[in-house]
Every structure is written in structure tokens, then in C-alpha cells.
Design brief:
The chain is of the alpha/beta class. The chain contains 5 helices and 5 strands. InterPro entries: Rossmann-like_a/b/a_fold, Universal_stress_UspA, UspA.
Length: 134
């Protein structure tokens, strides 16, 4: 089995990546890091550039975690994450989530909500540390 991380090049993605690496190492499983986009880096700031991906690979190497980084350009990011989780028989899907306003809490982000509801494996939703005062 494999741990799959839905990674973006921001604080949420970093939190998910670190936790996913910890889970993979603790269970002796490989890690697949998925940074999917439905557009291009020019219009989707969550799609990582080469420097970001190199940083991820270096971090994972330093943690001693066997990892594969995938960057598919797809029509539906949620479907891509679910497909990878199915393909590798994921033991867990790790995603980063963000702070929501009271209304936002009622209407959780569509990607996170769909992953939580549709994934066949357990989903671990990780929050990034927030700046003081929030």
C-alpha cells in the first residue's frame, strides 16, 4: 500500500506533505505526491515550478522516504487524486485544508469535500499552522 499526498506549493501543501511523509515512514510505505492542475503554472499558482519540486524531493530524501512526484495536467483535480489513490491502492490520502470563515465552514471547499466523501481510503485533512492572532 501507499500513502498519497495532494500537494500544492503553499503552507497547506507543505503541511500535508510533511504529515504524509511521516505516515509513510511510520508504516514503511512508499509515498506518491500529486501536484495536479487543470491549467498551467501561469494561471494556477498551486501548480509547482521546477524549484518547488526539487525542494520537495530534497526534503523527502532527507526524511528517508521513498517518493514519486507526479504533476498531471487534468480536467478535474479531484478526480485525478482519487484515480491515483485507486491506482496505487492507497492506504491513506493526505490533503491540506485552510481556515474557513463561518459561512465557509458550512460550505467546505469543493475539492476537500469531494475527496473526503468519495475516497475509498481514509483521508487525513491537515491544517497548516496559522499566523498568531487568527
Amino acid at each position: 500500500m501507499t500513502v498519497v499526498v495532494g500537494w500544492t506549493s503553499d503552507a497547506r501543501g507543505q503541511a500535508a506533505l510533511v504529515r504524509g511523509a511521516e505516515e509513510a515512514r511510520a508504516h514503511g510505505e512508499p509515498l506518491v505526491v500529486v501536484n495536479a492542475t487543470s491549467g498551467t503554472a501561469a494561471v494556477d499558482d498551486r501548480f509547482a515550478g521546477a524549484d518547488d519540486v526539487s525542494g520537495v524531493r530534497a526534503l523527502l530524501d532527507s526524511l528517508g522516504v521513498q517518493a514519486e512526484v507526479r504533476q498531471p495536467v487534468v480536467r478535474d483535480v479531484t478526480e485525478a487524486l482519487l484515480a491515483v489513490a485507486e491506482e496505487v491502492d492507497a492506504s491513506m490520502l493526505v490533503i491540506g485544508i485552510r481556515h474557513r470563515s463561518p459561512v465557509g465552514k458550512l460550505l467546505m471547499g469543493s475539492t476537500a469535500q469531494r475527496l473526503l466523501l468519495d475516497a475509498r481510503c481514509p483521508v487525513l485533512a491537515v491544517k497548516a499552522k496559522e499566523p498568531a492572532g487568527r
